[in-house]
Fold these 4 entries.
Entry 1:
Amino acid sequence: MPFKRSYFPNYFSIDDILATQERLPCKFQMKVHRLGFLDPSSESEDIEEGTSIELPYWLARSLCSQRRQIVTVEIPKIYKEAYREILKADPCVVDLHKLEIYFYEFGSYLARFDHPDSQPIGAMLVQTFKDRFRQVMDWAQNSGADPLIAQRLDALERQLFSEGRQSRARLNCWLNTGSSQLLAADMVVSHKKRKLVELEGL
């Protein structure tokens, strides 16, 4: 099975795997045995209650289940209210790649947490994407646009930008090669001739 580049979370998606590798600040709510190696600053074999370390999303999600909350998760600052207000004011000037290369995909995972910020994060992602989408497409359709613009886009927007550029190139190619005279199909020509013969015989 080929690897998929689809944005939608998928087991075989490289982008999805990389997005879930992003780290989250976590605080342990109980002592955990034989996991001391997760804390590089600790020499203990165990993780003590109250220890704060950063864990990848996929691990933090497993330890933060509703059945047994082993850790509490802190939302990264780029998804907190201060940054949400910046994106709300003018999302098109923000360098998403500098903030988080998988801004939308990682954010969609955070929106699933049982956290007070989860719902505002989801709403912010939708509005930010809607506001930036038109500009990304304008850049993709404008042949004179600075190619370095793509460096300011997150992974999803870069994919859309690339697809837009390719679509524009294919359209230009079709317009240039399709300017010759269009000819009627043989079946249509034969039908017209038969009609003329029938009319002349009347």
Entry 2:
Amino acid sequence: MAPKVKLGILVPSSNTSLEPLITAIISPFLKTNAISVHFSRFTVTSISLKPDALSQFEFGPIVAATKLLADAEVDIIGWSGTSAGWLGFEVDEELCRRITDETGLKATTSVLGLNRLLGLLDVGKGRGPGLGFVTPYLDDVQAKILEVYGRAGLDIKAESHLGKTVNVEFARVGEDVLDGQMVDAVAKLGEGKKVVSTFCTNLRAAQRVEAWEAKYEGLVVHDSVATVVWNMLKITA
């Protein structure tokens, strides 16, 4: 029997984390054949604000990778990446429109899924929970992410970043380092309800979410690998 829902995921070429993490997330559904997941890649090797790094996210190669997923007759396309965090949310919105125009399939992204979740929780809007970001990125990339979310009206109370640029190295960040970043972010957010996004799909962070939420009272963690899967399933439901 064919799976009831087939998810098509776009992967940065040098990302070695998101495929095993997504497979683990949906593993209960794999046993019942309710969901299957399929991947396609396009070139991404470094993250910075330099022109050659920004050009990796031009629409042409991404849409070409999407067409390969469409050949598998997936039900929806998800871009498992956080580039709209520094390029602007409108870039992901336009990408989704182009994917739909080219393939006839609905599409979403890690960032759009995260933003939907933040809206549901009224995060970063004064009365809602405080918001923080944990990433591996360079200073200027991190600053751009905070700027983009600030323009959207969200007040970022905490952040932690590692100053890295080579994408394949993000997957080598150990749990001890991520735990330290989370300690830093949670301390800055203080008491009460709070939300932290682990904002990079090549960080092996999703498997730590349950432990972090159990350790820190009032904490909700939205990992960018999980947010695209969540939104894809909400849309297809």
Entry 3:
Amino acid sequence: MKLSKNAVRLLLFAGIALVCFNVIAFVLPVPKNGTFWVSYGFGMLSILLQLVVMKAAFKGDESIRSKFYGFPIARIGVIYGVCQILLSFTSMALAVLIPLWIPMVIFILLLAAAAAGCIAADAVRETIVQQDTKLVKNVTAMRNIQSKMNLLVSQTDGSGELQKAIETLADEMKYSDPVSGQATEELETELDTLVSELQKAVIDGENEAALLLCKKARDILAERNRVCKLSKNNQ
């Protein structure tokens, strides 16, 4: 399996960090007692966990937006790694004075806090991404109708009553709430049908029918706006 450039960079970083940590740990003139080995083990673990955290933060199959929201996860992982390594070196240097249970408890609590933070940040990311996706879907219906009206305005010639009616309808749609909801689905379907019929009437030169369709569409749009406003007030 071919690794991406970012994966290769991450592996190189982890490798360099492991080498530096091991060199410093075994160069320190301290006894290799239980406190030393516990500090050493948790320090090594914190470096290796960076690979897991970064993979979770920047998943390869996720969207750019999802990866952007993954930065808080990566930040928690880096902060944990730095804190753990500093505490490991401190504990190693004081290995003669510190009993084994003190660094053990501190390191376990630090690891648990980092894990909880990463899990919480990932849950928040998933919620935000789902809301963004839902919002995009919710505005699609009105955006499509607005696009049809804009095209119709550009295709309609003249400055008569029909042209003004179409431009007025297009402007009202432009400033209408673009977010759809369950309460507005039926109205939007009817509005889309009216706009399609309006396009056909304009192409066929049926001005009277087109004017009537414009009036019906404006009435439906006004009703939709009223429903949108009521829905927001009830939230």
Entry 4:
Amino acid sequence: SKEELTPKAGENDRLEGDPIEQIQKDVHRTDRDVKAFQEDDAPLLGRMEELLYVYAVENPAIGYCQGMSDLISPLLWAFREDHQSMTYFCFAEIMSRQWSQNFLHSGGGISKQLEELKSLTCKADPDIAQLFEVVDPSYYSLYRWTLVHFKRELEFPDVARLWEVIWLDWNMDLHLYVALGLLVRHRDQVLSGCSTFDRLLKFINLMSQRLDVDLALRDAIDLRKKYSCKDM
């Protein structure tokens, strides 16, 4: 339901005081279906906990927020134990460039991105935009796509491939075109089967683990060439 998607009070707020307890809770429920994180004593879980704590201490203006463990786990998986410093460097750099806006106290970072996606949808496919205007005018159903950049829709190797391209994007908005491309490519299903918010949300959730990364990126790049107002 829409209520389940709306962030709970304080969910993305900066945690006051020592965040270690919350970090530990979040780390031990992150990606437990992935082999590298399945065991309670898995080395990568310990690394994740350490790196998130270091980030919170070194960046007190942001601190630690729920959801960050979802963003650092693919980096840990890619670099593994022998490259802890590289994992931290990449996480901190991408946070400073792009992800930190997703953890603003006001929630304005996510809202701004969803508004931009709404504007793009109106340009690219007015029929889909009209449907959203009726069943989900705030585009809350796409909140997760925006927050963690399709991380829960893909297997880890595909997450790494998608994020690598997104990170190379100077405008830092390619993920919005990926979302737009998915809606446009599946427009018949969206228009015929998503007449309520719950049906739309069900459709979005059913796309998990079924995305073709190469196709999604091609669609996103083509759409941005057509509809972007920013300099490439």
